[in-house]
Amino acid sequence: MSVSFNVTGKFLKKEEELVISENFTKRTFLVEVTVNPQYKEILSFDLINEKTALIDGFNEGDLVVVSFNIKCRESRKERSQGKYFTALQAWKISRYGEDISKNNSNISSTDNTSTGEESVHQDSNKTVDDEIPF
Fold it and tell me: SS3 of 75, please?
């Protein structure tokens, strides 16, 4: 089972599409989130293949909601075995305030952006038996 997350923040930058191979393209974009108003964090998201066009309509400063999965892979280089790389792989982005609940009904959508706090939400499709009791 894949776990999905949402984050709300300010769209900062989008990179050009990078062609890795005939069957693989990648595009990166940055979003600034605020957990504490004193300390802003910048998250780097990847869009893969047909998803690379999702950010075409977004500009610096737009308030956005990004839906993503966390991916981790071990390095394929022989001398780097045992090293792991983690990526935030986005699969949806929308402007804050658009009705995301109808398209993401399985993702919780509590909102604390108006207080200046960043919000990350985990997939709420689990049963009570799946949760850790502490």
Answer: coil
Distance CA 26, CA 112 (A): 31
What's the CATH superfamily of 4-126?
Nucleic acid-binding proteins (2.40.50.140)
Token digits of residue 131 = 């949760």
Q: Where are the beta strands (DSSP E) in 3-130?
A: 4-14, 18-21, 24-36, 39-48, 63-74, 84-95, 120-122
**Tens of pLDDT, residues 47-64:** 999 999 999 999 999 999
Q: Global pTM?
A: 0.69
Tell me which range, 34-38, 43-47, 71-75, 121-125, is most confidently predicted by mean pLDDT. Answer: 43-47
CB neighbours of residue 134 within 10 Å: 3
